[in-house]
Specification:
Strand content: 35-45%
Strand order of the largest sheet: 2-1-5-4-3
Number of strands: 5
Structural class: mainly beta
Radius of gyration: 15 Å
Number of helices: 0
Length: 101
């Protein structure tokens, strides 16, 4: 039985209660979304935003670390967490983030 790899972006941060933790960024991918290549530490991810207006500032995420959570049963996804830092795309990078690159 083959299962698709579920890849989720997280950022490290502090909650309003002052507790350190990992918080979901809001992007989920499959390995197919990355052409079959799992992003590694130092890689940049520029998710495209369909329907976004040209003048909106886009985000670029840099992978800082990865963690793996193997599936506990055949019905669960195999999960990979990518811990990322976030920044605004530079003018030179903005074309990478619009409507699918």
């Amino acid at each position: 039985m083959t299962r698709e790899l579920n890849i989720r972006l997280f950022r490290r941060g502090r909650s309003s209660d002052g507790i350190d933790g990992y918080w979901q960024v809001g992007y989920d991918f499959t390995l197919s979304d990355f052409g079959g290549v799992l992003p590694n530490v130092g890689d940049m991810i520029a998710p495209s935003i369909e329907g976004a207006r040209e003048f909106e500032r886009r985000k670029v995420y840099t992978v800082e670390s990865r963690f793996f959570r193997p599936a506990g049963s055949p019905h669960q996804f195999i999960n990979v967490g990518l811990v990322v830092s976030e920044r605004d795309a530079s003018r030179e990078e903005e074309h990478l983030t619009v409507g699918g690159g």
